[in-house]
Amino acid sequence: RRSSRVFVGDTFCYFAGMTFAVVGIVGHFSKTMLLFFIPQVLNFLYSVPQLFHIIPCPRHRLPRFNADSDKLEMSYSKFKKKDLSALGEFILKVAETLHIVDVRWGVHEDDQYIECNNLTLINFVLKLIGPTHERTLTIILLLIQVMGSAAAFLIRYQLVRLFYDV
Question: Region 154-166: what's the mean pLDDT?
């Protein structure tokens, strides 16, 4: 097993998030700061069905490393169909129709099961581009963050009258 060389752990994420929150609150620009979290907000919205246990959520939702190909692949959550509520099944069918979730329906040992990719922005990017090297995935995720920040600047300085009291 090989440790990650690029992705940071929980401790740094908590520290970075806390730092941004404090700067936004103390500096009195919390609405502007929230705009810079567009990718994180999208990740949250995409993850809601698993976070609120409408769809079963495993403990670890990060991509899976394939040592043979030296690439990251989507991680999946596998569960019995009977463990899924009617709302969860509806959400999976709609998401599958919209091609935003990879769902596999099957039967194993006389029991129906469902397997779907974990609902994170990282897995969604892997769904779009396929298995890729960790470095390439990191660059793509950083570009998404940069585009989110560019959108935040556009909203803040060009569309300011729509979002702020001026």
Answer: 76
